[in-house]
Write a structure and sequence with these properties.
The radius of gyration is 24 Å and the shape is elongated. It has a single domain, classed as Cytochrome c-like domain (Cytochrome Bc1 Complex, Chain D, domain 2). Helices cover 62% and strands 0% of the residues. It is built from nine helices and no strands. By secondary structure, it is mostly helical. Bound molecules: heme C (2 copies).
Length: 215
């Protein structure tokens, strides 16, 4: 009888210890998450904002807008800069050095930070360009073997976890990326195929349409 009580006490005691351990593990995870978020915001505000603007709303068309971009895509790009596989001269000149010291945790937290910022529409361009660009974006151009961009990037270019958001991005940056895909400086098979048949005028039209789109 006495032994049974002791056993019961032991069981409830170990339960209490397990509960306490479980709680502290959850607390440690929360605290770690909060520290990562704080570290990411500090780097975003203190370093990345110099070029990418406050909360990823960049003013200069040389620097891509990051606000509202999908986290998975952002991490993949940061990893590609760090591995030096995204090899356009601007990627090399600006981003290889920036990405080199970033840990996987910091990349994930920075990507999370930018993906949570609300995107905005950029300026609209000439109506004729927007109309032509929208047609290419939505329908492609079968004569030139250009598939509809909307098939992957979404009807309103908001992107998905697997395809980047393009809405509201700077015209100049978009054109430059399309040219880099075309000449394989940014070596991505799927976009190389897409961009192959695009003339410079088509790129300008589709980019002008995309810049004008909001969230
Ligand atoms: C000195 C300017 C500069 C700073 C500072 C900078 N970047 Fe960049 N970033 C660029 C340029 C230029 C590009 C475009 C590269 C290209 O054309 O391929 C770019 C591209 C990117 C891209 C790719 C976006 C896309 O749509 O594919 C990501 C992600 C990025 N930067 C994240 C960051 C983060 C995070 C930081 C801070 C740790 C940072 N950048 C700091 C200049 C900068
Ligand atoms: C079959 C799917 C697919 C189609 C169709 C497609 N894209 Fe893409 N696009 C992608 C993928 C995947 C990426 C990301 C590439 C990477 O990982 O670097 C991408 C990236 C891009 C980027 C770079 C974005 C950035 O922030 O740097 C631009 C610009 C772009 N696409 C424009 C277009 C345009 C314009 C069209 C139509 C003419 C188009 N895409 C059609 C799959 C597609």
């Amino acid at each position: 009888m006495k032994e049974r009580t002791t056993n019961k006490r032991l069981v409830s005691l170990s339960g209490a210890i397990l509960l306490a351990l479980g709680m502290s593990a959850a607390y440690a995870e929360d605290a770690n998450g909060a520290l990562n978020r704080i570290a990411a915001e500090r780097v975003a505000v203190g370093t990345c904002a110099t070029c990418h603007g406050p909360r990823g709303h960049s003013y200069s068309p040389k620097f891509p807008v990051l606000a509202g971009q999908h986290a998975k895509y952002l991490v993949a790009q940061l990893q590609a800069f760090k591995a030096q596989t995204r090899g356009d001269p601007d990627a090399l000149g600006y981003m290889w050095g920036m990405a080199a010291p970033l840990s996987d945790e910091l990349m994930a937290s920075l990507a999370d930070y930018y993906s949570r910022q609300i995107p905005i529409a950029g300026p609209t361009g000439a109506a004729a360009l927007v109309t032509r660009g929208k047609d290419i974006y939505q329908n492609g151009d079968s004569a030139a073997a250009i598939p509809p961009c909307a098939a992957c990037h979404g009807a309103l270019a908001a992107g998905t976890d697997d395809y980047p958001r393009l809405a509201g991005q700077h015209v100049q940056y978009l054109i430059k990326q399309l040219r880099s895909f075309q000449n394989n400086m940014r070596n991505v098979a799927v976009m190389h195929g897409v961009a192959q048949g695009l003339q410079l005028g088509d790129m300008e039209a589709v980019a002008t349409y995309l810049q004008s789109l909001g969230p």
